Amino acid sequence: MERNKDKIWRQVLILSGLFVFWGIPMGILSASADEARCAWFTRFEWNDRQDIEDELANIESCNMNIVLFQIRGQGDAFYISQHEPWSDRIGGSYPGYDPLAVTIYEAHSRGMELHAYVNAMPAWSGSSPPSSPEHIYNAHPEWIMVDEYGVPMDPNEAGYADISPGIPQAAQHVNDVIMDIATKYDVDGIHLDYIRYPNSSHSYDDSSLARFTRDYPGCTPGACPGEWNAFRRTLVTEMVQACYDSVTALKPWVKISAAVWGDFYSGYNSYFQDSHGWLEAGILDFFASMGYTGNTALFAQRLRDHVINSYGRHVYGGIGIYLDFGTATMVAEIESCRGIGAQGEAMFASGDLYGDYKSTLLSGPYSSYDSIPEMPWKASRPFIASVALPIDSNHVEVLFNRDVDPVSGQNAANFIFDNGLTVINAARDVSDHGLIHLTTSTHFENTLYTLTVSDVQDVGGKETVAWPNNQRMFYGSRTSPQFIVDNEDEEPAFSLVGDWATGAYGNPYGSNYNWAYGGSGDRTATWTPDLPSDGIYDVFAYWVQGNNRATDAPFIIHHFEGADTVRVNQEINGEQWYKLGSYPFEAGTSGDITLTNDADEIVIADAIRWLYIEALESDAPPTAIADLQAQKSNSDVVLNWSPVTTDTLGNPETISQYVVYRDTEPYSPPGDSLGSTVNNTFTDPLAAGLIGTHYFYVVRAVDATDKKSDNSNQVAEFDIDLGATK
Q: In sequence order, which residues have a C-beta less than 8 Å from that of residue 447 and are 6 or more positions away?
């Protein structure tokens, strides 16, 4: 009822001539009560997974419906990225969870849209460079904007050092990053921030100047300043166009948006951001204007100009509550958005939606929930596997965007993992019918898994659409033990034969490395780990690269099944862990890695890492069931037990079936089977003619290679005549 009253009140405002007061044509105003309510959720407002979950819960409690979650701040990633390293803000490595996947799960579970918020131009800020050599600031310093004297932006003085959109490789990199996100994740939108120049005095890089003189013959920036500005404005627009075209070609329902300058003319002339032109060209679905000011008249004036020039696309008024200008100003600016005809608001930032601001929202303008305004030019969202999240080392939750048909959703064969991970059971959540709980074999934190969903239908019979919407990636939950042997370790862990020198150029593992000239193989370096358990291990080598390095350095892996030689080019891939392969090793010191100087140039012996992946396949049978239980149900006997997940050596086990045995006498081993099941329950429908008979039950687990466990515990006998358990 409150929502309907709100809609009627807004219609009255429009019809009463409020549009004359604002100086806006009547057709610009919206009579719809639907309202976008966005929260910018920046990288500075959380430190761990619990922070993310708490922030999403608070955003939902404010009756917001869109979360703009920052996943790229300065050439770094808060998600599983193919192109950029994990952010130094979370340690520069995988933090044990996927922040973007967690946020999608929390937002979608709460009925909110989740848009991936990307800082487009910034490469780095601060006095110290990023830790990863693969970071674009380290790997591509030539991409950084320069001034007219050729001096690159200083990230310690300029706020950010930005990449130049006039360098094709830099612009393409940003688009590759965006497409990586759109492909891997079920985001509802891509939100571009810093999609502009930092000022008018950059970027005079060689690539931009060459392209400018090609497009404007006879011009130089100094002689043709208007053309120079128009050229830079076009470069930014081309990046927006590339994003819109690429993402919508793959997923036409995903919304593309931007955070734009509050004053259009400043953005257009000083930062080369043609936000109105983007709406007119249809290469944005909406933008949020950064009208951050406590001056409500100025806020309304700037927003009004945006709404008038929206060309049928949506405009959300960005409200800077971080300025702490008071709740009365916040409410006034929300009402300005509504009166002017914007389709919603965006609050900067979510970390300020507490205290008086929150209570004022909930007692006033956001007292009830509103739906997000429709965008009729966008495609409808199909049935999608939205996210896969590991819960513990043997469970994964798969969230769909609609309720799942229970038959197809609970068929374990419809959920396929790579890297040897198998599904033991699939079950639909009893309350959230869009959520499927998977029981799996053990997955490991350092292993990246891809889930492929097939033949799963929603309750209306629609199947999940094809790649990439039926695939989701995640890292496992169980930490994989790793073991590192460095050249500085003592024998027998590390040993040398022949003449080797010591070097410390570059960034070795530890403080130095050993090196030897290429030769006949008479010089060897050997790394011998003391492994705690049998298993399959990923093996990695570390070296410092150089122009005088061997292109065929031979690493000989002595493992449980023999020996393999892997030759690597040490001119490249240095100062990182380079994977040699995956090999079986026994516990103890029976295996090793040997590098010889049988190579064309200098070989580098630094460090080797073993990363445990999974147990060796064994002939051990499955573990016996220990908790078989039985109870009478009318004239039936119902058996229940816990699923078997390991073999008798404690290794992960995949069970193909459970075989149930029944006899009138205690027995071992059992006789003929009563039947089998793939589940951990079985019903024995007793015939009326068996009254007076006593029964004994046991169950055995059978693995994929047909090995059977020992008998389970034997349940108490049943007296069918009395219908009671003895």
A: 419, 475, 476, 480, 613
DSSP assignment of 659-692, as one string? EEEEESS--SS--SEEEEESSSEEEEE--GGGTT
User: Number of folded domains in the chain?
Assistant: 4
Q: Give the span between the Cα atoms of 34 and 339, in whole angstroms.
A: 14
67, 677, 36, 49: which is closest to 366 by C-alpha?
36
Task: For residue 473, give the nearest of 100, 76, 56 by alpha carbon.
Answer: 100
Give backbone dihedrals phi and psi of 255, rounded to 5 degrees, phi first.
-85, 135
According to the model, what pLDDT value does residue 478 have?
Answer: 61
- Alpha-carbon span 167 to 159, nearest angstrom: 21
Provide the pLDDT for residue 112: 98
Q: Angle between the 355-363 and 327-340 helix axes, to the nearest 10 degrees?
A: 40
Q: Which residues contact 129 (CB under 8 A, 6 or more apart)?
A: 135, 137, 138
pLDDT of 724 reads 36
The domain boundary residue, chosen from 588, 614, 640: 614
Do 488 and 468 belong to one domain? no
| pLDDT given at position 276 | 98
Contact 566, 557 (CB under 8 A): yes
Q: What pLDDT sits at residue 688? A: 42
Q: Tell me the Ramachandran region of residue 32: left when phi exceeds 0, alpha when psi lies from -120 to 50, beta otherwise.
A: beta
Q: Return the structure tokens found at 238.
A: 């081309």
Mean pLDDT of all residues belonging to the chain:
89
Quick: pLDDT tens for 581-629: 999 998 899 999 999 999 999 999 999 999 887 766 666 788 899 889 9
Which segments of the chain have a pLDDT < 50?
1-32, 687-689, 720-726
Give every CB contact of residue 544 below 8 A, 6+ residues apart in sequence.
503, 505, 506, 507, 508, 513, 574, 575, 604, 606
Total number of residues shown for the chain: 726
Give per-residue pLDDT as tens, 69-84: 999 999 999 999 999 9
Same domain, 494 and 466: no
Its domain, for residue 9, covers 2-17+37-353
**DSSP class of 376:** T
Query: Which of helix, strand or coil describes residue 531?
Result: strand
